[in-house]
Amino acid sequence: MSALKIGDSFPEGVTFSYVPYTPEKDSLTACGIPINYDASKEWAGKKVVLFSVPGAFTPGCSVRHLPGFIDNLEKIKSKGVDIVAVLAYNDAFVMNAWSKANGVKNDDILFLSDVGTKFSQTIGWTMGERTARYALVIDHGKVTYAEKEASGGDVSVSGAEAVLSKL
Is 36:17 a contact under the CB 8 Å cutoff? Predict the structure, then answer.
């Protein structure tokens, strides 16, 4: 499969690794148990914003990319979005710690691991061994927005403001 584009169906069989939020595992040092998250199934019939970053806890991702989605979460959800998710090549434990370090609870934003960058490789949007910086909007199984940054350091077409303008 090549890059997803507007009008494409979100692929079947897309699975990520994920540690669900639980209050008893709220501490940054508490480890939950990763589960497989069947995005194709969970996102069917929903409006989803998925943004991908090259790595958790990196300066561009932690300072320029993720905060925009945290700050604009209510505005994004007010546009009928059911799920907001961030994706990176990091494992589910690192993604879970990144959510906690940023004060994201109750799965307000899902922090998903693209294990082995399988999904990102499938759509051709990687940055070496890492996931590329991109954003997708999937509305009831159809891609309505799909943009990848020209440079890994840029946060323009994949940032919260750009995505919000397309909802």
Answer: yes
pLDDT digits (tens, 9 = 90+) for 114-127: 999 999 999 999 99
pTM of the model: 0.95
C-alpha of 164 from chain center: 15
Q: Among all residues, which ones are annotated catalytic?
A: 61
DSSP string, 58-92: -HIIIIIIHHHHHHTHHHHHTTT--EEEEEESS-H
Phi, psi (5° rounding) for residue 131? -70, 145
**Residue 152: both structure tokens together:** 């890994």
For residues 10 and 146, give the distance between their C-alpha atoms in angstroms, rounded to a whole number: 11
Rg value, the chain, Cα: 14
